[in-house]
Amino acid sequence: MKNQEEKIINLISNQSVSFISSIDENDFPNIKAMLPPCKREGIKYFYWHTNSPSMKVKHFRKNPKACVYFYDKKDVAGVTLTGTMEVLDDIDIKKEIWKDGFVQWYTGGMDGEDFIIIKFTAENGRYYHNLQKEDFKIE
Description:
Shape: globular
Number of helices: 3
Radius of gyration: 15 Å
Number of strands: 8
Oligomer: single chain
Helix content: 10-25%
Distance between the termini: 12 Å
């Protein structure tokens, strides 16, 4: 898996869009295209910033089960990761992620109630490449 992990990290690092799936109030999957993660730790932990009143934050507060997907159209490769999403309102992680340009999206800036972080912890994955698929567990 080590060699595949490097390929997966490369795939994720080169995408301009990521897809996040939550479970809605009727227990159906709900998918959202987002910017790439603003912080990543290998293929285990991923962080995004978002608006606290968003639908996905409401979903994750109720049900943390989540799926993220990254796709490389050029190489026809992709990786699906399943795990849990945590809503973080921690000032230290907010300071680490905050950029001055974010003020246009978040009322009240970094300290405002609108700016929130979601953290995904991957447990399992499926890597699609060369017309093959490989399932794996993330330790």
